[in-house]
Design brief:
Blueprint: H1 2-18, E1 25-30, H2 42-63, E2 74-79, E3 82-83, H3 84-87, H4 90-112, E4 118-121, H5 129-137, E5 144-147, E6 163-166, E7 169-172
Parallel strand pairs: 4-5
Antiparallel strand pairs: 1-2, 2-3, 6-7
Helix pairs in contact: 1-4
Length: about 170
């Protein structure tokens, strides 16, 4: 839950940049054990999970699977207060994924004390020009590899290096 809170804060910052401040982003941790207060102590969370697992035990045995526990928990991601899964456009959904991945990079960087390499495969196709521009030109201070199939997708790149794969060979653009 603490990780989710940190991830949510960083991802909201990234999403704000990706959307140019036009959309709001939020993430909530959904526990299969029922609502857990944000400021709950470890012992309180353990007690809530234990009680929920005990209450579900008979049904779990009948169904031969567990219905309660951290493995059943999820994240609710919202854009402008609405579920991104149900109501988000493909571009918004892709932006949510990017915001979460880049927030995860920031958390990893804090822990490792060096930036991780970022690999983004074919992320440009469902983004509008503003979102592509942000992605291409605001990921400074780290090594980023972005693949795409259309030269127009990288037209706004203000630095970096472009490579092409042709005939099984990697060729530099210069």
């Amino acid at each position: 839950m603490r990780y989710t809170q940190k991830l949510a804060a960083y991802a909201a910052e990234v999403y704000d940049g990706i959307s140019g401040g036009r959309e709001s982003f939020s993430v909530r941790y959904l526990s299969s054990c029922g609502p857990i207060p944000d400021k709950a102590e470890r012992a309180e969370v353990t007690a809530l999970v234990d009680a929920a697992v005990r209450q579900s035990r008979e049904q779990d045995i009948k169904m031969a699977k567990t219905h309660i526990g951290p493995h059943r928990d999820d994240l609710e991601i919202e854009v402008n207060g609405k579920s991104a899964r149900s109501f988000g456009s493909q571009g918004q959904q892709r932006s949510c994924v990017l915001a979460l991945k880049l927030a995860e990079c920031r958390i990893l960087e804090e822990g490792m004390k060096e930036p991780p390499v970022v690999l983004l495969d074919d992320v440009m196709s469902e983004l509008d020009e503003g979102r592509r521009n942000y992605l291409l030109n605001h990921l400074v201070g780290r090594q980023v590899f972005i693949t795409c199939c259309d030269d127009d997708m990288i037209a706004s790149l203000n630095g970096g290096k472009v490579f092409y794969v042709s005939g099984g060979m990697v060729v530099s653009s210069d």
